[in-house]
Sequence to fold (878 residues):
Amino acid sequence: MTPRDGGCVEHPDRGPLSKVEMAALVARDIEPGSFVNLGIGQPTLVADHLPAGSGIVLHTENGMLNMGPAATGDQVDPDLTNAGKQPVTELPGASYFHQADSFAMMRGGHLDVCVLGAFQVSASGDLANWSTGADDAIPAVGEAMDLAMGAKQVFVMMSLFAKDGTPKLVPSCTFPLTGVACVSRVYTDVATFELGEHGARVVETFGITRDALAARLEVDLA
Amino acid sequence: MTPRDGGCVEHPDRGPLSKVEMAALVARDIEPGSFVNLGIGQPTLVADHLPAGSGIVLHTENGMLNMGPAATGDQVDPDLTNAGKQPVTELPGASYFHQADSFAMMRGGHLDVCVLGAFQVSASGDLANWSTGADDAIPAVGEAMDLAMGAKQVFVMMSLFAKDGTPKLVPSCTFPLTGVACVSRVYTDVATFELGEHGARVVETFGITRDALAARLEVDLA
Amino acid sequence: MKVCDTAVEALGAVEDGATVLVGGFGMAGMPVALIAALIEQGATDLTVVSNNAGNGDTGLAALLAEGRVRKVICSFPRQADSWVFDGLYRAGAIELELVPQGNLAERMRAAGAGIGAFFCPTGVGTPLAEGKETRVIDGRTYVLEMPIRGDVALIGAHRADRLGNLVYRRTARNFGPVMATAATRVVAQVSEVVDVGGLDPESVVTPSIYVDAVVAV
Amino acid sequence: MKVCDTAVEALGAVEDGATVLVGGFGMAGMPVALIAALIEQGATDLTVVSNNAGNGDTGLAALLAEGRVRKVICSFPRQADSWVFDGLYRAGAIELELVPQGNLAERMRAAGAGIGAFFCPTGVGTPLAEGKETRVIDGRTYVLEMPIRGDVALIGAHRADRLGNLVYRRTARNFGPVMATAATRVVAQVSEVVDVGGLDPESVVTPSIYVDAVVAV
Fold:
């Protein structure tokens, strides 16, 4: 690895990262003892990489703390699911609560970290992850806006470029917003970023240099 | 008993009523199956007159439904008190909840009746029962304002005249208000009243005629 | 509170044009028998408030398919198996008010708790806050949100006692306790009705005051 | 979350000028050992938020008697045995913000739930709403009420597990669960700390996320 200006570390021989590798990176950056909500989809993979004994507690917004891994076989219980409506398990020390209490927990700023997917993130931390604004789309928002505004830190996991090559880290989101200035870190297949008032800072790159990356993005990198 | 204009019933041979007799009158007028909060002091006496099998459930705002009678002897438990901080008992089918939930229950209009004491009640149902406005008094409000605004019906129990002979049912309260237009019935030692947009209507008198009563009050009786 | 023998009896009268709160998150806590009773009962022009807008062809989806729902207030209508809603929505045959999930819960809580309106951080700066009053309080921007009240709430719980106290099971608790506070009439389907005294008073989640009828299914 | 051996260790650092939420309704749920630790710890110029303003000469009354409290936010300071508060108040030595009990609870809940402010029916037209913004919503008048946040909350519960999940006992539950959501640091005194898994997940009232330290006394 090569340290660069702004503290960026380049990993030219490693990357682009798989979803599993990205999940491992996110897991590495979550403090022991944190209370964490993992969004539906890719972020769910983070759970597999949380170190044993870290004391990290998972929240699921449908009303539970200390959610365990996916349920299999006889463990499956239709009354015990995660926010993606998949059967899960209960760890010792769990608790159940209703929706108003669950979202009070989230919106009151009690969760340390939530990890979300995204369509776009702006350099100032705006998040767009609930609607592409397509005319014929059936809109659905779920918990996205509550998580974006509620958790102390919002981490995003996404590929940095869409299938057509368009960057998803942008100067300003063109898709409908989920939340304003809420994302603090972005984990992608080719780089990780810290966002803040200073704008976007590259923390690490994978299989690409910081300069090559900068050339492909329209955002000014701090 | 003698029915009078406006449906008033005079009981010339009975009254003034004792506090216990007033409590029995209030109890008579509470519908079976009601959820009821009895205020601190005199209203507590109402509990002794609720008919067995009425299905009336008592709420205490410190966090309980289906409160039972006062605890005695071995029943006394410092963790189980009523709103007056006296030890009470638990009836089968009880439930416990915290203060925000208890007052949500009250303020959300879920209680059928609350019974309160009063310093003054106006003919339009304004209630003054938390402060005499005396300069050197230590103010305290507790649950009075929440009960006044929250219950579907607010009944007041009080003597109709203060010790100095001043009426406590008044055209307009001079003491600081607890709630505006919230009292629907007033039970006193010499008469009971229904209050509403029409003003005060005498329902029953005890040991005094309606005319003699009207002469002692400054409010116009409907 | 009435313990009923059938879901239709528990449901009772529902008027055309009523607002119906329907519990459940996906199928967990979904009051399937009560929705079937509502289909049988016949009320139409309904507004349904629920987290999702039906799955597959049964339950809420069946009610929608019968053309009985004018408007859905929900947070997540689009699901892999929400084809009934999707079709109605695309055909312009159903109205949708999309509400963030936390706002949905908190707006019903407000209705149940006597709160007239509240300033909420969720949705600020997004299309779902457009046209709504905002205010900066202590340097943070909030949107004013209004209560959501139901004429009737249909909820799925685990056990009831004969007074109507309810306990739930695991994440099937979800919207039930909040909806129970927010509707004029509250009907619960449960797995079992136990005698008074059969539930631990410390563990009751929905106190009996909120419940009008229960049916064991 | 830390399981501590002493109340002083559990209490930890409290800064001068801090806002301290103190649970209990009368003596039920009163965190007596934690208040004693606060007296020992020495922080002064405190704002105390509690339903009452101390009974007799111990607990909260002792903290007041030490001159350590600048302001009390409470609903019912005047009691038969509130002579310590009464004396300070009459001497002009303590500030009082009198809050209806339901507003006290709901304002702390709002702080814990991320609500910026809420319109509330209690107190409308009374001296306690003077100077506050009002609004008519659907024909009813409401007063705008602001959140109450604590730097630290001291609560009394019944049992904790080693993660900090709490259960309460009977009406001693009162303000504990709400205060636990509304303070930066939450400390609970309990009768017993049990192993993880020793509490029924359906019956936990305060989930572990809210609790920073517990001590068994």
Notes: Chain A touches chain D at residues 33, 35, 57, 59, 65-66, 90, 92-97, 103-111, 149-150 (CB under 8 Å). The radius of gyration of chain A is 18 Å.
